[in-house]
Amino acid sequence: MSDAPLAYFITFRTYGTWLQGDSRESTDRWHNRYGEPSAPSSSAREGYHRDLMCGDAVVLTTGQRAIVDRGVRSRCEERGWGVLAANVRTNHVHVVVSASAPAEVVMGNLKAAATQSLTGLGEFARGAKVWSRGGSTRYLWTERDIEGAWEYVVNGQDEKPGREHE
Q1: Which single residue of 2, 18, 110, 139 has CA 20 to 30 Å from 90?
Q2: Which of 57, 121, 106, 63 is nearest to 88 (CA)?
Q3: Do 22 and 66 have their domain in common?
Q4: Residues paired with residue 154 on neighbouring β-strands, in sequence order
Q5: 72 and 118, same domain (yes or no)
Q6: 10-25: pLDDT as tens digits
């Protein structure tokens, strides 16, 4: 196996739409390792984090989702990264991307490109908080890993009841 993954499965969420303590599970500094349990849900913890928010939660409209998609794809083209699949939802973005840069650099670039596209078209004010801090960067080491991530991003978003708006 190579030292470099074939691709990354990157996910990042809009600001304030999935707080620590949420019943859908979340991560924190003690619960953030792949394959290990997520942080337990807690309405008190979720409320605490909601009180810390410096603005409203961001839910993307259909038009804003298209803007984000174009921004992500454009940045990947500029950098020579291959977009294998992308799906911009109302509260998160999934991208399967092949890139020679580290996953965290790729994710930062995609978030920046999406924000620049949104603010450049007047959808958000400059300096607005559009994305939550961090995100998920899964390394895809095999073609089978890529196929599974692609299938989920392209076809698997609405499979679970109660997730229609994600």
Answers
A1: 139
A2: 63
A3: no
A4: none
A5: yes
A6: 999 998 776 555 555 5
Partners of 14 in the β-ladder: 131
List the one residue out of 165, 147, 9, 3 whose CA is nearest residue 86: 9
Give the single-character DSSP code of 136: E
Picking from 17, 25, 88, the residue whose alpha carbon sits closest to that of residue 59 is 17
**Residue 106 sits in the same domain as residue 34:** no
- Alpha-carbon distance 107 to 8, whole Å? 9
In one-letter notation, the amino acid at residue 119 is T
Domain interval for residue 47: 18-55
For the whole prediction, is pTM greater than 0.90? no
Cα torsion 109, 114, 120, 122: sign: negative
Question: Mapping DSSP to helix (H, G, I), strand (E, B) and coil, where does residue 7 land?
Answer: strand
pLDDT tens-digit map of 105-153: 999 999 999 999 999 999 999 999 999 888 989 999 999 999 999 999 9
Phi and psi for 129 in degrees, rounded to 5? Answer: -85, 105
Sequence-separated (6 or more) residues with CB below 8 Å from residue 19: 26, 46, 49, 50
